[in-house]
Design goal:
globular, binds SN-glycerol-3-phosphate, alpha/beta, about 15% strand, 9-stranded mixed β-sheet, TIM Barrel, 9 strands
């Protein structure tokens, strides 16, 4: 009886502490391809680095192998910019499309080293021997790391990379691609932690119809108006994700009036981060999550077992 009031007093004094262990900050810093500025893109080390930098969302791109495996890769081929062939040799831009992931088994994809070459556009990126991972392995690695080392369950911003020209050649058509991805995600993650993004509006329309419970982000690169993009899409997505130079405060306000969040890409300079935050965006996608720590204050890498 005497204990009850003390417990209640404690609970009313510290509710924020209790909640802050679980709740994500509202400003959403997304680690682009994990943390491309720091680690080989779209690899497990890049995603772990993103988590340790305090991101609230991990951003990644998907491709599909001949044997139906979903892998994390920006291109549906083995890019000559970042990969070495199975003998450890570089190859040319002209040759890279011969290594079409949709015509390779995952065993074949795994023979390529996509980390030792580095990336000339990102000189700080650590060089290491690493292969393109399976989406399932990425999720398992991220969730294990969260369990052991971080306070926050991050969201996943997953891009389905497709286009009409590539249907049946570099990837399946939208319905098959999407159904495969949904099946895997449903098996591995709570669906409320997922956003599906695409430049391919066919993909977004498919998810809107078939999986209406999944949040969607419309990626746009051109300078057309918000109204034109939304009319083309045919519905209001949860998130509008423009190239960061094509957004301004008016557009942010217009989108917010429609209850659509604004998350531009790919924002790498601190001055750009500040300017976009000033416009009222809801987050941004960056290759350098380490430069964005101040926006999330989630940098809390505490080994939970210690
Ligand atoms: O998610 C936004 C951004 O990733 C789009 O550009 O080419 O890096 O996939 P890209
Ligand atoms: Ca992407």
């Amino acid at each position: 009886m005497r204990l009850m009031p003390a417990v209640l007093i404690f609970a009313t004094m510290f509710p924020l502490i209790a909640f802050s262990q679980k709740k994500l900050p509202t400003f959403d810093v997304q680690g682009h391809r994990g943390a491309r500025g720091l680690m080989p893109e779209n690899t497990i080390p890049a995603f772990i680095t993103a988590l340790d930098s305090g991101v609230t969302t991990v951003e990644m791109d998907l491709a599909i192998t001949k044997d139906g495996q979903i892998i994390v890769s920006h291109e549906p081929w083995m890019s000559s910019d970042i990969c070495l062939d199975p003998s450890g040799n570089a190859y040319t831009k002209r040759e890279e499309r011969d290594f079409n992931i949709y015509e390779m088994t995952y065993e074949e994809v795994k023979q390529f080293d996509c980390g030792s070459l580095g990336n000339s556009k990102f000189p700080e990126q650590v060089k290491m021997s690493v292969t393109k991972p399976l989406l399932s392995d990425v999720i398992v690695a991220i969730e294990d790391h969260i369990k052991s080392y971080t306070r926050f369950e991050v969201d996943y911003n997953i891009e389905i990379k497709s286009g009409e020209d590539g249907d049946g050649k570099f990837h399946p058509a939208p319905a098959e691609f999407s159904d495969r991805v949904y099946k895997l995600l449903d098996e591995y993650l709570p669906l409320d932690r997922i956003v599906i993004q695409s430049f391919d509006f066919r993909v977004l329309r498919y998810w809107h119809e078939k999986y209406p419970n999944i949040r969607l982000a419309a990626l746009v690169e051109n300078k057309r108006s918000v109204k034109a993009h939304l009319e083309e899409l045919g519905f209001n997505p949860n998130i509008y994700s423009p190239y960061y130079r094509n957004i301004n405060q008016e557009k942010v306000m217009e989108l917010h009036e429609r209850n659509i969040k604004v998350i531009p890409w790919t924002v790498n300079e601190i001055s750009e981060m500040l300017s976009l935050k000033g416009m009222g965006v809801d987050g941004f996608i960056t290759d350098y999550p380490d430069r964005a720590k101040q926006y999330t204050n989630t940098l809390n890498i505490v080994p939970k077992n210690k």
